Amino acid sequence: MKRIYNNINLEKRNSFGVKQEARTLVEFDTAEELKSYLEEAKPSKWYVLGAGNNTLFTADYDGVLFAPTASSRTILEDDGESVVVRVEAAHDWDEFVAWSVDNGLWGIENLSAIPSSVGAAPVQNIGAYGAEVKDAITAIDYFDVDKMEVVRIKCEECGFGYRESVFKHELRGVAIILAVEFKLHRTPTPNLGYGDVIKEVEARGGATLKNIREAICAIRASKLPDPKVLGNAGSFFKNPIVPRIVAERLLNEYPSMPCYTVPNRDDVMKLAAGWLIDQSGLKGYREGHVGVHDRQALVLVNHGGATGGEMLHFAEFVCSVVKGKFGVEIAPEVNIL
Ligand code: EPU
Questions:
Q1: Taking burial as the number of CB atoms within 10 A of a residue's CB, which of 8, 11, 235, 241 is the most buried?
Q2: In the prediction, which pLDDT does 86 show?
């Protein structure tokens, strides 16, 4: 059933916990309900709010927020080795990962404990510990607001990149994701190359799905604040991709600077925004209600009572300090409204 709320407080619907309001919020279960609302109300401004883990409201939202509520999970195919599963948008991401691990299905275990809904996961192509959700996605069903019908898009058409997809660009303001289809495998494919993952997995007795999930959860919990306790949206900034020549100049000056190659690109390198912010002396730094997390400098936190505007102002300050010290622009990863 469709539910419409007017002048609704969003504090519990965004992981920063900022107290902005939305003029209208529409919860819907089905594409038909969404369609009937769109036909009737013809909203000129709208946005999809999933679990609210990657959105910063910098002011009250004067349009319509669409919040999907359908969360079923259906196995479509199982050939013994691989399983194709369709998961509706409102399904909690980590509950889906837990289900895959409990059922011996490989592919998304490194993405354990990421706060997200399934529908939001492809928008920014969530990624962690050497894995990205794009590698498990086969297709996505979305409601196309221009065509007023459900459209199915294959993974190859989603324009996936580092924290990027077509849903942030060409399909922004067009697509409302309804369900995501994944292909997971019974053949083990442990992906332990990132940071401390192998060490933590071995400490738990080796590369089983359960051990990998536990290791990833433990690593995340040791660095990243729990949004239920301290308002945040995980990484606030993307790791910047800079011309190779810029990276080499910085490496000359800072030989210990983390620096990664970018697949299929020789001309650029990826730097660690967390390191840049940390080395700018801002880790744990706080101004009023907003601060840089003291264990992971990529994360900005609401210590309580911050407005979205304050968060944004502080983020701009962090960018300017990093730019001043390293000459590198860092850009937000969160959607700023
Ligand atoms: N670093 C510091 N100080 C810090 C933070 C990081 O020196 O305060 C250094 C680390 O020592 C390391 C490097 O920077 O050498 C990279 O740090 P880390 O491995 O913690 O990962 P990250 O690049 O900071 C990215 C993702 C995270 C993801 C981790 C693990 C982005 C923007 N962030 O962080 O994603 O969990 O890798 O794969 O790509 C998220 O998107 O919300 C998120 C948390």
A1: 235
A2: 98
- 22 C-alpha vs ligand 1 centroid, how far in Å? 32
- What 3-state DSSP class applies to 163? coil
Segment 150-173, tens digit of pLDDT: 999 999 999 999 999 999 999 999
pLDDT for residue 263:
86
Q: Is the CB of 128 under 6 A from ligand 1?
A: yes
Nearest 5 degrees, angle CA 21-CA 175-CA 228? 40
Q: What is the pTM of this model?
A: 0.94
- Which residue do the tokens 């983390």 mark? 258
Residue positions annotated with a catalytic role:
163, 235, 333
CA of 243 to the centre of ligand 1 (A): 20
DSSP assignments along 273-306, one per residue:
HHHHHHHTT-TT-EETTEEE-SS-TTBEEE-SS-
Pocket test for ligand 1, best of 223, 239, 298 (most atoms within 8 A of CB): 298
* DSSP 8-state secondary structure symbol assigned to residue 142: E
Query: b vs e for 91-111, b when ≥16 Cβ sit within 10 Å of the residue's Cβ?
Result: bebbebbbbbbeeebbbbbbb
